[in-house]
Amino acid sequence: MGRSPCKELQTGLKKGPWTNEEDQKLVDYIQKHGHGSWRALPKLAGLNRCGKSCRLRWTNYLRPDIKRGKFSSEEEQSILNLHSILGNKWSTIATHLPGRTDNEIKNFWNTHLKKKLIQMGIDPMTHRPRTDVLASLPHLIALTNLAELINYRQNQWDDDSLRMQFRQSEAVQMAKFQNLLLQSTATAAAAVTTQTGYQTEQPADATTVNISQDNNVSMNTTTESRYLPHLEIPLVDSSKQPFVGNNTIHELNEYCSGLSTQLISPNSTQVSVGNNIMKGDPCFANSADYAGSCAIDGKDTTTLSSFWQEIDGDDQFCLDNNFIYEYEY
DNA sequence: AAATGTTACAACCGCCAGCTT
DNA sequence: GAAGCTGGCGGTTGTAACATT
Fold this sequence. Notes:
Elements: H1 20-33, H2 41-45, H3 51-62, H4 73-86, H5 90-94, H6 102-119, E1 122-123, E2 128-129, H7 137-156, H8 160-195, E3 203-211, E4 217-227, E5 247-248, H9 249-259, E6 270-273, E7 276-279, E8 293-296, E9 300-303, E10 316-320, E11 323-326
Parallel strand pairs: 6-11
Antiparallel strand pairs: 1-2, 3-4, 5-10, 6-7, 8-9, 10-11
The chain binds a DNA duplex through helix 3 and helix 6.
Keywords: DNA-binding, Nucleus, Repeat, Transcription, Transcription regulation
Main location: nucleus
Subcellular location: Nucleus
């Protein structure tokens, strides 16, 4: 439906980076007249750009309330918490970070946070420990087979020079396996620790493979002083009773606020009201919305979203498998 | 010093929802 | 109800800056 976006681009309008002069024209116009219709704006402002390009430039870069510079650790933590709940809803996340644009947050996520989580063995999409550590199992099996093969061939070969040649090639293989093991063990260590809570600045165990002069292969586990990056991952609070059974919206809300940084992360929030499944964001909204609070990161006290207004405070709810259901009588 | 690789981020693209005609 | 328009969103790309070889 509708036309293709920014059709004007096909008619010789400028693309690419904005010049200072263009920026100034855009800012001057909007400060005087407001943006009004974005489509009409470029012509009125004397810009050879499409309206969409002007809107993006303004909202992502020129707007006066934009906070520039590096993200603080508080902002970083907020993004992590919010992403664990909302997923790639960058614009929604941006509403909780004053002065930050959705584009900026998205870029920061893709270039920093995503990699950081992967390094820690956390799946950036689910915010849970990665399960692909199991994928390294075949390598471990192959390693065992290789050790057996080495012993077998050692008995077979008497020719010293031939054995030397073999050792060299196998040493390369071993080094590769060792590298693989180090990676998978770090992943597993991160996975284990994150299941029990926050893991920050704690040493990760590492398994090493030793190849002795006579090709004996041994594995031992050492505690290496390799520290994981400082990062707090929101997880289910194991010390807290699971939020199950019938609960009023007030109880649910209280539960949420009690979680502080350890908020249970619903990957997808759905509210079942009668036969209608409503998708939404139960923990975030404007303060004018439902009068209950849901603390995120121990600081950000937000309220339940607008669609919760529809729900009576004494309605019965059940949180099951990260979905919130309302009971109907 | 030059070539090559990597990172960061601004900007673009395609799609969609909501509104109007 | 269909078609068109607009603004918004999320994914992707292009490129400048920086790091490494």
